[in-house]
Design a protein that fits this description.
By secondary structure, this protein is mainly alpha-helical. 54% of the residues lie in helices and 6% in strands. The protein has six helices and two strands; from the N terminus they run αααββααα. Helix 2 crosses helix 3. The longest helix has 17 residues.
Length: 140
């Protein structure tokens, strides 16, 4: 399992669907122990193993992950209960709400003015917009 770059502040790990833990579980074989997740996140985020266990417990209570206790193991095995797309949607929605007061156009403007946006990126974005416009119903 490789670590996921979640682009959140390491000092304030999220406890909901925006947590890097569901993404880590998505990238694993589908299930992972606290130890597995800690190993994937420790180098990048510097979290203690007990912090990861607490996060998983809270995520389970919220329905973001599920756990099972295999008979051959003394550790719980956790599985993401949400898809990667759902996590992305939640994270982008929260980012848009918190940093741009819910203004999607402000988010897009910010992204387009970044120095690392290439002409190829802009061309692909234009293609995406064109596809959305041609498939979307007319708005008034």
């Amino acid at each position: 399992m490789r670590p996921v770059r979640a682009h959140t502040q390491p000092s304030a790990p999220s406890q909901g669907a925006n947590s890097p833990v569901p993404l880590s579980l998505q990238e694993s074989s589908g299930e992972a122990t606290v130890q597995d997740i800690w190993e994937a996140l420790h180098a990048e985020r510097g979290l203690a193993q007990t912090t990861v266990a607490t996060m998983l417990s809270r995520l389970e209570r919220r329905g973001v992950v599920t756990r099972r206790a295999p008979p051959e193991s003394r550790q719980y095995h956790y599985r993401a209960a949400v898809t990667e797309r759902e996590v992305q949607h939640s994270m982008v929605g929260e980012l848009t709400e918190r940093l741009f007061d819910g203004d999607v156009t402000a988010l897009v403007q910010h992204l387009l003015t970044a120095e690392d946006v290439s002409p190829g990126d802009i061309a692909r974005i234009r293609d995406m917009i064109e596809r959305v416009e041609t498939n979307a119903p007319e708005t008034k």
